[in-house]
Task: structure prediction
Amino acid sequence: MENRTEIGTLGEFGLIKRLATPFAQHQGWTKLGIGDDAALLEAANQLTVTSTELLIEGVHFDLSYTPLQHLGYKIVTLAVSDIAAMNAIPTQIMIGIGLSNRFSVEAVDELYAGIKTACEDYQIDLVGGDTTASPQGLIVSVTANGVVDSTQVVTRSNAKPNDVICVSGDFGGALMGLQSLEREKQVFLANPDMQPELDNKSYVVLRQLKPSARFDIIHELRELGVVPTSMIDSSDGLAAEILHLCEASGTGARIFEKNIPIDDETYLAATEFNLSPLTAALNGGEDYELVFTVSQSDFEKVEKIADVTAIGYMTDLKNEKVMVMKSDQIVNLTAPGFN
Amino acid sequence: MENRTEIGTLGEFGLIKRLATPFAQHQGWTKLGIGDDAALLEAANQLTVTSTELLIEGVHFDLSYTPLQHLGYKIVTLAVSDIAAMNAIPTQIMIGIGLSNRFSVEAVDELYAGIKTACEDYQIDLVGGDTTASPQGLIVSVTANGVVDSTQVVTRSNAKPNDVICVSGDFGGALMGLQSLEREKQVFLANPDMQPELDNKSYVVLRQLKPSARFDIIHELRELGVVPTSMIDSSDGLAAEILHLCEASGTGARIFEKNIPIDDETYLAATEFNLSPLTAALNGGEDYELVFTVSQSDFEKVEKIADVTAIGYMTDLKNEKVMVMKSDQIVNLTAPGFN
Result:
C-alpha cells in the first residue's frame, strides 16, 4: 500500500519547510530565499525584494460582502505588506487572475479599479500578470517587488534579548469586521429584506475590507535613523507573529496584556460577539500591522512615533514566550497552527 | 439595469489591454511592464526580467494522465520560457500552490520533485511562494525572474522588414501528445483493464508532458554574437506567435509551408487523428520553442545552429501575414482567439 500522510499533520509551516529544504541555491545574487516575508535579490547598489501570494475565493475572501474594488485594494496591500516587513519600499506588482464565467468585464474592471487605487497609494507599477479561465470562482495570484539598501534590510532573525517589541496600530479589528460582516450575511440569507446593521462597526469593517500596509511607519523609522532588529507584518495575528520572530531570532519574549493596543470599537464588537478582545487581538489576523523589535538605545527615538506601541521585550529564555496578564498571572503565548 | 459585457467578447488580449491601460507608471526603473513576455526592471548593470503565470487544474492540466513530477517540471519550464523569450538568463522562481484535501503530502512532494529537477536543469533558485487551501483541485501560480544586459534584451517589437523569421525545434508535437493522452484516457474510462497504447507516441507524449525551455539556443546565439531583432516563445502555436511579433513590430510576414519543421511522429499522429499536421504545427500550442527574427546579415551565423530553421521573412506590408503553400497558393496566417 502506498504511504499517505495528510497535509494537516504537517501544518502550513511544516509543509513549506518540507518543500523548501531540498532546493539547492545556484545564484550568488539570491541573498535570501524562502523563510522570511520576501526574497532578496541583489542589484548593484540596492537589493530587490520580491514576494508572492495566492488567494482563492471561498478560502481568502467572500464576495457576498466584499466589494470587488475593496478586494483589489486588499490584494495589493497584503502583497506589499510583506515588502514593508523587510523594511523595503515597494516598486512593482504582477497579478494573475483566474475567472469563472460568473464574472463580467464590469466586475473585473471593479477589481482592477481597486488595484489601481492601491498602486497609486503605494506608488508602485503593475508590470505583468496572467489571466485565465477558472472552473469555479475567482483566483488571484500577486507578486510584489521592492527595493532596500543592504544596510537597511530587516529580516525576522536578528532580534536580541532585551530588544523592545513594538507594534504599529491596533489589533483584532479585522477579525471583528469579519465577524460583523458574516453575521449580516446570515441575517440577509435568512431574510433578504433586512437592512445591514453595521452603524457602529465602521472602523472594524474598514479594517477587514480595506487594510493599509504601514509604509508611513517605514518612512518614519528611516527619518529617525532607526533600523529595527527584526520585523514581520501581522497577517496571522499578533501572537503568531511574535512566535515567528522568536523562532527565527532564537529568543524568548515577554509581552504585557495591558500594553496591547485594541481599538474601542474592536473591544465593544468582541464583547457583543462573546469573544475575548484579547483573543481577537492575539489570534485574529489580517490586521497587516508591523510587529518589530528595536534595541533599547533606539527605543527612545521610536517612542516618538505616534502610532507605535511598545508591548514587551525579547529575552534570552528561548523556550519562554509569555504574556504578563493585568492580574500579574503569566501565561504562554500560543497561536493556532503554530508548533 | 446594470451593464454586463461578457468577457468572451473581449478575448484574452483585449481583456489584458483593457485592464493594463489605466495604470500609470511610477517607477523610473520599470523599463518595460505589461505587453511583452516579461517585465524589465533595471538594476545597475543588468536588467531584472520577471514574469508570472497562473495554472488551474481542469483548465491547464489534467492529472488523470499528467504525473505530478512532470507537471512540476512543466510549470517551471513555461515560466522560464518567457524569460528565454526576452533573451535573458533565468535566475529565480516563486511558486504558490492551492491544494484541495484530495492531495497528500506525498503528492505535493512529487510535484516539488519535478520543480526541483527543473530548477537544477535551468540553474535557478526557488526563492519564495505561498501555500493555501483550495476548495477544488490544484492551483499553481509561478513567477520567474531573469537577468539580461541592456544591450542583449530582445522584445517583440523590433523586427524590421526583410528580417529572417527563425524557429527552434519543431511544432505540433505537444498537441499530438495531448490528443494521444486524451484518447487513452477515454479508452481507460470505458474499460479500466485496457493498457495504454502509447508505444509509437513517446516523442509527442514527452513534448506534452515534459517540454524544455530553449536556453541552449539563447546561449548559442550569444556565442555567435547575434541579438535577434524580436523574439517570443511559442505557447499558443506558431501562427499566433508570428502574428504577435508582426503586431508589436508593425510588420507583415511571409512564411513557407515547406519550411515549417514538423517531426515524423507528430506527422503520423496527426494523420492518425485525421488532423492536418500543418494545422497542428500552426495552432497547436504548448511547444515552448523560440520564434525569433534576425537581420539578413546575422542570418549567415544563425544558419549554423543545428536546431534552428528559417521559415520566412518579415515584410513592410503590415496588413499581410501570409503563408506560401507547397502548391504555391498563398493563404492568410490565422490563429484562434487572435483578432
Notes: The longest helix of chain B spans residues 105-122.
